């Protein structure tokens, strides 16, 4: 049966919801604050254009009914879990999530290093302000330029800036950082214009999703030198290539 855009079959919606739930659980249990910030930025960008459409489709009565259904289903689901002998499962999950949150929000272990890396970046730029120390050289020269406030390697073994923009500044200088930022802004602008000019349909929604993913990457790179990782770098540029390909084919 042929379906029009926006009229998805129920089984596809269920599959999409289940996949999203699994991804969120993995995000909470395995990834870091930077990943959460990136996902939040991507979700905001993706959902903002859909808020108005959602308001026109969801009535106040429907929203109230849905909210009541969710609130009533939670205790029922917990009762069923206990009745089938899995009563310990919610408690175990809650304990793991609590332990995870406590570990991630213990800023005393991570933030001193990040703050020291800002000072280390200034040390590098004092000697190499325009072109930096060259690609791949920051790690090799880390002990030479690291700030005195850098934590001991025993407590924190990283030898990178843990920030892609600081890494670009250290390895390519101010000129390289400005060039990289200009490139990122240009990519966002081109993909956004492609999204705005595309007709409603799957390609337009794909451009929006790719734009959200790319912006999420840019936010995540504040807390991680992501493009220094080969697999992540390939994924990053694959997203850009997909966005440009969709935009070009729709012209």
Give a concise summary.
With 251 residues, the protein is mostly helical. Helices cover 72% and strands 0% of the residues.
Helix segment tally: 9
User: If you compute it from the alpha carbons, what radius of gyration comes out, rounded to the nearest whole angstrom?
Assistant: 23 Å
Measured as a percent range, the helix fraction is: over 70%
Cα shape: flat
Strand content: under 5%
Q: Provide mean pLDDT, rounded.
A: 80
Largest sheet: none
Distance between the termini: 29 Å
Which parts are unreliable, with pLDDT below 50 for 5 consecutive residues or more? none
Give the number of DSSP strands: 0
Class based on secondary structure composition and strand pairing: mainly alpha
Helix and strand element order: HHHHHHHHH
Give an overview of the whole structure.
- With 251 residues, this protein is mostly helical.
- The chain has a domain at 32-61 and 107-249.
- It is built from nine helices and no strands.
Helix-strand layout with pairing:
Elements: H1 10-30, H2 33-57, H3 60-83, H4 88-104, H5 111-127, H6 142-145, H7 164-197, H8 202-220, H9 230-249
Give keywords:
0% strand, mainly alpha, 9 helices
């Amino acid at each position: 049966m042929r379906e029009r855009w926006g009229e998805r079959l129920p089984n596809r919606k269920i599959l999409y919801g289940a996949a999203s739930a699994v991804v969120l659980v993995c995000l909470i249990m395995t990834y870091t604050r930077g990943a959460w910030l990136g996902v939040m930025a991507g979700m905001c960008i993706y959902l903002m254009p859909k808020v108005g459409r959602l308001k026109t489709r969801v009535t106040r009565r429907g929203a109230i009914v849905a909210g009541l259904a969710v609130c009533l289903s939670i205790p029922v689901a917990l009762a069923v879990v206990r009745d089938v002998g899995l009563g310990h499962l919610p408690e175990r999950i809650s304990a793991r999530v609590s332990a995870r949150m406590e570990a991630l929000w213990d800023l005393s272990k991570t933030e001193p290093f990040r703050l020291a890396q800002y000072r280390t970046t200034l040390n590098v730029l004092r000697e190499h302000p325009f072109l930096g120390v060259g690609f791949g050289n920051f790690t090799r020269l880390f002990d030479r330029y690291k700030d005195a406030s850098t934590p001991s390697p025993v407590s924190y073994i990283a030898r990178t800036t843990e920030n892609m923009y600081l890494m670009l500044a250290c390895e390519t200088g101010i000129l390289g950082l400005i060039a990289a930022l200009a490139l990122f802004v240009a990519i966002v602008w081109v993909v956004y214009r492609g999204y705005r000019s595309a007709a409603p349909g799957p390609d337009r929604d794909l451009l929006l999703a790719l734009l959200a993913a790319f912006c999420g990457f840019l936010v995540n790179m504040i807390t991680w030198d992501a493009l220094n990782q080969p697999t992540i770098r390939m994924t990053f540029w694959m997203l850009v290539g997909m966005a440009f390909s969709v935009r070009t084919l729709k012209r």
